[in-house]
């Protein structure tokens, strides 16, 4: 697995199902997220177990992410046709319903490889070849600012994705860093010796 934080997010052009249900033969990441923040999140496979809970949880947070100027793109190694079938399967039958963000196809595994998260098998729970349960938050310049990877049995907390985007925007707008457990509305920290001393004096008991 490679670390992409601080680097340009790998671009890709692939087939996808858009949030309005349209199937397209060319979805180019750089064009879709130009001038926006973005969440690019990988999951192992359609029609599986932990994955639908994550995709539905992400859909419940898309409106908030859009308010933050953030585009959401989900990816797996399944085809765009399989994505579409999953969208058209009712939630009470194991489907995800009509999620309102793009699901992109990575049938040749090139995107998972570019992001360094194609599973190799071995001691993890992932079968070799699938995309790992990985999330990338990208800034408006196309730079990866956050990356996290869970093993297959461990579902992600999608509220944390929103928190990270809000923290990134707070830092960009205020120039203050975000301490442990920072949430929107909390105090930031000036990254100087005096700044950290002041923050800890006022907030260490809340950490």
TrEMBL record:
Annotated compartments: Cytoplasm
GO biological process: cell redox homeostasis; cellular response to stress; hydrogen peroxide catabolic process; response to oxidative stress
Protein name listed in UniProt: Thioredoxin peroxidase
Thioredoxin domain residues: 3-170
Coiled coil (UniProt feature): none
Function noted in UniProt: Thiol-specific peroxidase that catalyzes the reduction of hydrogen peroxide and organic hydroperoxides to water and alcohols, respectively. Plays a role in cell protection against oxidative stress by detoxifying peroxides.
Family: Belongs to the peroxiredoxin family. AhpC/Prx1 subfamily.
Keyword 4Fe-4S assigned: no
Active site feature: 51 (cysteine sulfenic acid (-soh) intermediate)
Molecular functions per Gene Ontology: thioredoxin peroxidase activity
Pfam families: 1-cysPrx_C (PF10417), AhpC-TSA (PF00578)
Entries under InterPro entries matching the protein: AhpC/TSA, Peroxiredoxin, Peroxiredoxin_AhpC-typ, Peroxiredoxin_C, Thioredoxin-like_sf, Thioredoxin_domain
Record GO cellular component, one term: cytosol
Species of provenance: Gynuella sunshinyii YC6258
Record flagged with keyword Acyltransferase: no
Keywords: Cytoplasm, Disulfide bond, Oxidoreductase, Peroxidase, Redox-active center
Main localization (coarse): cytoplasm
